[in-house]
Specification:
The strands form 3 sheets. Strands 3-4-5-6-9-10 form a 6-stranded mixed β-sheet, sandwiched between helices. A hairpin with a 5-residue loop joins strand 3 and strand 4. The chain has 2 domains: 2-39 and 273-376, 3-Layer(aba) Sandwich (Rossmann fold), CATH 3.40.50.10350; 48-264, Glycerate kinase, domain 2 (Alpha-Beta Complex). It contains 14 helices and 13 strands. The chain is α/β, with parallel strands linked by helices.
Length: 378
């Protein structure tokens, strides 16, 4: 059989490439002659750089920028063969790196600094993945690092952090890096949220970044105030558009710069050749660390399932955990959804045995599929 193995990463445990390798080992155990096409996936969030690199699409580049805690540290980006650059926001301001910082003091300044470093190499086409951010500054920090100035009513500088944006009176763009006008932006995003409101960056994603329930209204109001001033300065409205609320509103800032929002999973699938690999396949496997209601809204496994259905190829989902409430909807899109856990386990135990559990589950699934195909033979 020809198998296409296109999982996302299992966050906190394995990269997408390692997940794919573990699944492949399980299949090979029961079908040594299997044709295995490994296509690690991502949706624009954590793991996007590694998935593209695993596909042999570029070379690692490095820069030193400030993270959310202000500490300057090395970060990675990817230079593609066609001259484009891929930047992953989680590399700079990822949630695991937030430490003890307060959400109201976090900024995307480091993201803007990384963009400037990319521009310094002569690159003028940038793909930027927005998933996994710990920030909620509407991209104000990013724009400041790129030369914008935030001023209060007295002409004094306003810090580009949520707690200070309420004091903003004017956005000054005369110092904005002139090279930005020549950049072609592709914003990789797996959410369609606007910047503010009930479905905006703060109310939907703020709590997982540490914004307390009693702070949500103030954070949302600060972003709304920032948006009015920024839109006036740039002469365009985009806070209401889908994806502007991604990465704590960084999507909004990138739209102001001319960014075109696309599905991160769709772009990664196109670049890594998932669609071409699925053509003529007998079965497709995908997976992620946990599958729930969000899986079907722009996540990598959903994109793989769509491509498989369009090609008429069965596709199964293997996950570290399955949300019971979402299982019915998931089963409508996948030919079987399977948890890799063999029994009750603590989180630590589950993480420690992820590779073995992936291989064993893939082997068990392959045995059933092969047995069924054997029974159907005349």
């Amino acid at each position: 059989m020809r198998w296409v193995i296109a999982p996302d990463s299992f966050k906190g445990s394995l990269s997408a490439a390692k997940v794919a390798a573990a699944l492949a080992r399980g299949i090979a155990r029961v079908e040594p002659s299997a044709e295995l096409l490994l296509r690690p996936m991502a949706d624009g969030g954590e793991g996007t750089l590694e998935a593209l690199c695993a596909a042999g699409l570029g070379q690692w580049r490095h820069a030193r920028v400030a993270g959310v805690d202000g500490t300057v540290r090395p970060v990675r980006w990817l230079g593609l063969e066609d001259g484009a650059a891929v930047v992953e926001v989680a590399e700079v301001v990822g949630l695991p790196d937030a430490g003890g910082t307060r959400p109201g003091q976090r900024s995307t300044v480091g993201v803007g600094a990384l963009i400037r470093a990319v521009l310094d190499t002569g690159c003028r086409r940038i793909l930027i993945g927005l998933g996994g951010s710990s920030t909620n500054d509407g991209g104000a920090g990013c724009l400041v690092a790129l030369g914008a100035r935030l001023l209060d009513s007295l002409g004094q500088e306003v810090a580009p952090v949520p707690e200070a944006l309420v004091h903003l009176h004017r956005v000054e763009l005369s110092g904005l890096d002139a090279r930005l006008a020549r950049v072609q932006w592709t914003v990789l995003c797996d959410v369609g949220n606007p910047l503010t409101g009930p479905e905006g960056a703060t109310r939907v994603f703020g709590p997982q970044k540490g914004v307390a329930s009693h702070e949500l209204e103030a954070f949302d109001a600060a972003l709304a105030h920032w948006a009015r001033q920024a839109e006036q300065a740039f002469g365009q409205r985009c806070a209401h558009l889908p994806g502007s609320g991604a990465a704590g509103g960084l999507g909004f800032a990138l739209r102001l710069l001319g960014g075109q929002v696309e599905s991160g999973a769709a772009v990664v699938a196109r670049l890594t050749g998932v669609e071409a690999a699925i053509a003529g396949a007998d079965w497709v496997l995908t997976g992620e660390g946990r599958s729930d209601g969000q899986t079907l809204h722009g996540k990598a496994p959903a994109r793989v399932a769509t491509l498989a259905r369009e090609a008429g190829v069965p596709v199964s989902l293997l996950s570290g955990g399955l949300d019971r409430q979402a299982l019915s909807a998931l089963l409508d899109q996948f030919d079987g959804c399977f948890s890799i856990q063999p029994g009750p386990a603590t989180l630590e135990e589950a993480l420690a045995h992820t590779e073995d559990n992936l291989s064993q589950t893939a082997a068990a699934l392959a045995q059933v599929i092969l047995a069924n195909r054997s029974l159907r033979k005349p």
